[in-house]
């Protein structure tokens, strides 16, 4: 057991960029996280806490959150027990379980996905991730070439491989996500996922993906939709998430101008995941 510091960041309307903040905090030594309706909470071992590094985190400065955050000392406790209580396993359907290594397996599910829980959304607790997984479960990926851009923990890539995709390219600009995806590929004993650190530029000259997953945020999706469409085969599909229901119209309109036809969407707590099909006119 050890002492920790708890950093509390007031966020009245949890930003769609909350996953970015989680990743940045993780890169700076914070190892567990909570979200409430108005706050983001991060924990770090006492010996690793550095107030200067905390205040230098770009996200906090960008939104002036460095002026309102609170730091509290937390005496030693059973952190393994707290960790496990904060990260329960998640059944996406009765046939798909996403769990951490310390959770029990379930021999009755077809898809038993193990994710090291360095971010809450990595174990499918975030609505965008769970909806993307649900969409993947509903569709046939057998023999498909898949791109997972903004892969985060790699959970979508792992499920795609388990659903017999022929190959999966997992891309993330963040070094932490790149490394975490490699870890999760290994722990699930997956052999057909290739991980690349970078952004949409890494697929600039590629045009043969059957399916693309892009769970990022509205601004990046709008910026890169053309790139995704260009990378798809005619008749291919792209799954988008990471934005709110109010933004679906903007996403749909931009997709339409890039030969992507809206098919359907899921919605959960005002978050959206949607599917488009490419048609070359």
Describe the structure.
The chain is an alpha/beta fold. It has two domains: 2-84, YebC, transcriptional regulation domain (Alpha-Beta Plaits, 2-Layer Sandwich), CATH 3.30.70.980; 139-278, Vaccinia Virus protein VP39 (Rossmann fold, 3-Layer(aba) Sandwich). It has nine helices and 14 strands. It has helices at residues 18-27, 51-55, 58-62, 79-86, 127-138, 155-162, 175-187, 218-231, 248-256, and strands at 2-10, 32-35, 39-45, 70-77, 90-93, 96-99, 111-114, 145-149, 167-172, 193-197, 209-215, 232-244, 260-268, 271-278. The strands form three sheets. Strands 10-9-8-11-12-14-13 form a seven-stranded mixed β-sheet, with helices on both faces. Helix 5 (127-138) runs parallel beside helix 6 (155-162) and helix 8 runs parallel beside helix 9. The radius of gyration is 19 Å and the shape is globular.
Task: Summarize this structure briefly.
With 281 residues, the protein is α/β, with parallel strands linked by helices. It is 30% helix and 33% strand. It folds into two domains: 2-84, YebC, transcriptional regulation domain (Alpha-Beta Plaits, 2-Layer Sandwich), CATH 3.30.70.980; 139-278, Vaccinia Virus protein VP39 (Rossmann fold).
């Amino acid at each position: 057991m050890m002492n920790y510091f708890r950093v509390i960041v007031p966020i009245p309307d949890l930003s769609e960029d909350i996953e970015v903040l989680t990743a940045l905090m993780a890169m700076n030594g914070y190892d567990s996280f909570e979200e409430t309706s108005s706050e983001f909470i991060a924990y770090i071992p006492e010996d690793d806490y550095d107030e200067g590094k905390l205040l230098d985190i770009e996200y906090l400065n960008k939104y002036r959150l460095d002026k309102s955050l609170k730091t509290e000392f937390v005496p030693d406790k059973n952190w393994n027990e707290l960790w496990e209580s904060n990260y329960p396993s998640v059944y996406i359907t009765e046939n798909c379980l996403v769990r951490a290594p310390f959770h029990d397996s379930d021999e009755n599910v077809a898809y038993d996905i193990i994710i090291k829980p360095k971010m809450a959304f990595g174990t499918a607790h975030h609505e965008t991730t769970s909806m993307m997984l649900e969409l993947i479960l509903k569709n046939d990926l057998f023999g498909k070439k898949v791109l997972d851009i903004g892969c985060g923990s790699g959970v979508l890539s792992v499920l795609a491989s388990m659903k017999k995709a022929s190959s999966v390219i997992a891309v993330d600009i963040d070094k932490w996500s790149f490394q975490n995806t490699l870890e999760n590929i290994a722990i699930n004993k997956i052999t057909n996922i290739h991980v690349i650190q970078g952004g949409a530029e890494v697929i600039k000259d590629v045009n043969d993906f059957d399916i693309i997953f892009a769970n990022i945020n509205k601004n990046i999706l709008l910026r890169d939709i053309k790139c995704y469409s260009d990378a798809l085969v005619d008749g291919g599909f792209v799954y988008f998430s990471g934005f709110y229901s109010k933004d679906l119209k903007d996403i749909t309109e931009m997709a339409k101008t890039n030969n992507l036809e809206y098919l359907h969407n899921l919605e959960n707590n005002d978050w959206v995941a949607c599917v488009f099909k490419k048609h070359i006119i």
